[in-house]
Design brief:
Organism: Streptomyces glaucosporus
Domain YrdC-like: 14-200
Low-confidence stretches: none
Shape: globular
Largest sheet: 10 strands, mixed
Protein name: L-threonylcarbamoyladenylate synthase
Strand order of the largest sheet: 1-8-2-3-7-4-6-5-9-10
InterPro entries: DHBP_synth_RibB-like_a/b_dom, Sua5-like_dom, SUA5_domain
Distance between the termini: 45 Å
Pfam families: Sua5_yciO_yrdC
């Protein structure tokens, strides 16, 4: 059964955040809130967690996992950015965007797109997510919690606990999340490509 953590949306309890992060460091796969919708997350390098995300979401090996980072300094360790891309990404973070970029050697090979050698990165604008990332001290390996065959993500922590009780290890609930996933912008091919229109405003990239 998954542990259930009730977290205050504006003032996350340090003890509760610490307990969630201890679980993540021990190999847990958690469902947690972001500024777009709920996500599945585990520690980078957690192969079992990554395999369970693939299984829950029915993903193939071409799916871009996302490294959810606490700040731009952390993000820039994992992806390569030229000056123009740096400015564009910096201006849009934190926010409801995922950026596809060429991965650096810091990214484990199994997280990269097998042919493009790219990875997704984002910096969420969400108090609870930022508290988790601050405590963890490293990115979370993540994917949107959108189940196969469903058009919208679940928005209630209790519903996630009920439906995914035996496939995730913890659910972090801080109230309703939105139903729109992040806007995905691919900078890896030279030109800007909007792969998915979501919660983030696309006009700045068009």
């Amino acid at each position: 059964m998954a542990k259930y953590f009730d977290v205050h949306p504006d003032n996350p309890q340090p003890r509760t955040i610490g307990s969630v992060v201890d679980s993540i460091r021990s190999g847990a796969l958690v469902a947690y809130p972001t500024d777009s919708c709920f996500a599945l997350g585990c520690q980078v390098g957690n192969r079992d967690g990554m395999a369970r995300i693939r299984s829950i979401r029915n993903l193939d090996d071409r799916h871009h996992f996302t490294l959810v980072c606490r700040n731009f300094a952390q993000l820039s360790r994992f992806v390569r950015l030229d000056n123009d891309v740096f400015r564009a990404v910096k201006a849009a973070t934190p926010g409801s965007y995922t950026f596809i970029l060429p991965a650096t050697k810091e990214v484990p090979r199994q997280l990269m797109h097998p042919k493009k050698k790219t990875v997704g990165v984002r910096i969420p604008d969400h108090v609870v997510t930022q508290a988790l990332l601050d405590e963890l001290g490293e990115p979370l390996l993540s994917s949107t919690l959108l189940l196969p065959g469903e058009d919208e993500p679940m928005t209630q922590g209790w519903e996630i606990k009920e439906r995914l009780d035996h496939v995730v290890d913890a659910v972090v609930d801080s109230g309703d999340c939105g139903t729109e996933p992040t806007t995905v912008v691919d900078f890896s091919g030279g030109d800007v490509e909007i792969v998915r229109r979501g919660a983030g405003d696309t006009s700045r990239f068009e």
